[in-house]
Amino acid sequence: GPALWRGEEAKGMSAGGTKQGTSQGVSGESESIADKYFVCTECLVEGSVQSFVDLFYLTHAVDAQDADEDSSASFATYETLQFLKARLTEAEVANRQAQHSSVFASYMDVAHHYQGQHDYKTSIYFLTKALDVARLAEDREREADANQMLGLAHERMGNLRTAIEFHETHREIVTTAGVELPAESGRHLIGAYKALAEELQRQGDYASAIGYFERSLKAAQTLGDFAGEGLAYQQLGNAHQLQRDFAKAAECFKKFLEICQETDDKIAEGSACSSLASAYEAVGDRASSIKYLEAFYEVALTTGELTAQREACGRLGVIFNTAGDYTSSVHYFSKSFEISRSLGDQKAVDVARVNLGVARGCAKKEQYLKIVNGSMDALLGWKNRRTPFDDPPR
Q1: Smallest Cα–Cα separation from 317: which of 283, 345, 351?
Q2: Is 19 helix (H, G, I), strand (E, B) or coil?
Q3: Is the CB of residue 150 less than 8 Å from the CB of residue 128?
Q4: How would you class 51 by CB atoms within 10 Å of its CB: exposed for 0-12, middle for 13-18, buried for 19 or more?
Q5: DSSP character for 69?
C-alpha cells in the first residue's frame, strides 16, 4: 500500500523528490505501480490538480481488450511517465497564464506520443483538447493542424465519416485563409472519401458509394492530382457498372483512359481498355467491345504482361465465337492456349484447350454437315483416317 511504499521507496529518493537507486525502465508490475504512484503524487505536490487527474486516468485506465493481453504491456516506463507528467503540467501552468501556444504544443506532443503507440483513442482525447485551445485563442493555423490530425486519427480507427468531417474542416480553414491546400492534406481527404465509398460499396449501397467517389474525383481535380483523378473515374465506372448503368460506366472509363494516355501509364491504360470492353459488351455493342479488347491486347504486348495478353485473347475468342467468326475465334484461342502453356498454368491450359477445341469444331461444323449430307466416302475417310474436310478422298 501507499504507506509501505513511502517507507521503502523513499530511501531511493533524493531530498528534491527525484527517484534514485532504481534502474530506469525496470519491468514488473510492482515497480510500475510504484512509478505511477510517485509521478502522480508529484503532480499534486506541485499543485497541478488537472495534470494529476489526466495522468491518473492515463496510468490506470485499462481497456477491456487489454485485459486479455500480457499485463506487463499496459505499464508505461518511468521515462514515459515523466514525459507525460512534464507535458501535462506544462500545459496546466501555461493555461493559467493564458499562454495558448504552449498549451497547444504540450497537448500535441502527448497526442503524437500516443499515435506512435497506435493508441488513437487516447491521441484523439488530447487532440480534441488541443483543438479547443486553438479555438479559444482564435488561432486558425493551429486549429487547422488539430483538425487534420484528428481526421487522420479517426481514419485509422475506422471512423471514416468523422474523419471526413475533420479533413473537410481543415480544408475549409486553409482555403478560407487564402492558402493553397498542401498536396499531402488533399490526398488524405481523397483517401478518406475513397475508403468510405469502398465500404459503402461492399455494403451494397451503390448510390451512396457513387456520391463519395464523386467527391473524391472533385477533390482530386481541385488538387491537380492526375493519378487520383484517373483512379476516381475508374472507381466511379465500376460503381455505375454494379448499378447496371453501363452508359455512365463507359463515360467514366473513357475519362480514365484519356488520363492514362496523357500520363503514359500503360498498365492503367490496359485496365481502362478492359473495363470499356466489359461495359460495351454488357449493352451488346460487340464492335466497340472488340475494339477495346484489341487495344487491351496491344497495350499488353507493349508492357510484356502475359497474363493480360491471355485475358484479352481469351475474351476476344469468346466474342468472335459468339458472333460466328470462328476463324478469328480459333486465332485468339490459339494465342490464349500458347500463352497459358508458357506461363505453366495447367488449369488455364486445360480451359484454353477446351475453348480452342470448341472453336475449331465450330469452324469445321459447316463443312462437316455438308459431308454428312452429301459424301459418304468423305465422311468415312474422315472417321477412319481423319482426312481433312477440305481435302476429301476421291
Answers
A1: 351
A2: strand
A3: yes
A4: buried
A5: S
Where residue 364 falls among pLDDT bands split at 50, 70, 90? confident
Positive or negative, the CA dihedral 265, 270, 275, 277 is positive
Confidence of residue 221 (pLDDT cuts 50, 70, 90): very high
Q: What are phi and psi of 13, to 5 degrees?
A: -120, 145
What would the pLDDT profile of 36-83 be if each residue is shown by its tens digit? Answer: 777 888 887 888 888 888 888 887 764 434 444 443 344 468 888 889
pTM: 0.73
Looking up cell 491518473 gives 56
Q: What are the cell numbers at 284?
A: 451488346
Q: Which amino acid is at 265?
A: D
Taking the C-alpha atoms of residue 206 and residue 168, their distance in angstroms, rounded to an integer, is 23
Contact between 259 and 226 (Cβ < 8 Å)? yes
Q: Which cell numbers hold the place of 323?
A: 458472333
Name residue, grid cell 504482361: 305
> 306-323 vs 346-374: helix axis angle to the nearest 10?
20
Given a contact cutoff of 8 angstroms between Cβ atoms, the answer to whether 336 and 316 are in contact is no
Distance CA 283, CA 240 (A): 13
Q: How far apart are the first and last CA of the chain?
A: 112
- 336-355 burial code (b ≥16 CB/10 A, e <16): bbbbbeeeebeebbeebeeb
Nine-digit cell string for 263: 500520363
Give the largest Cα separation in the chain, rounded.
120
SS3 13: strand
Joined together, the cell numbers standing for residue 237 give: 465506372
| Residue 51, all three cell numbers | 495534470
Residue 113 cell numbers, joined:
506520443
> Do the Cβ atoms of 236 and 224 come closer than 8 Å?
no
Phi-psi region of 387 (alpha: psi -120 to 50; beta: other; left: phi over 0): beta
Closest residue by Cα to residue 37 from 74, 68, 6 = 6
Distance CA 142, CA 177 (A): 13
Which three cell numbers mark 152?
487522420
Give yes or no for a contact between 83 and 113, defined as CB atoms under 8 angstroms apart. Answer: yes
In terms of Cα–Cα distance, which of 315, 323, 319, 329 is closest to 364? 329
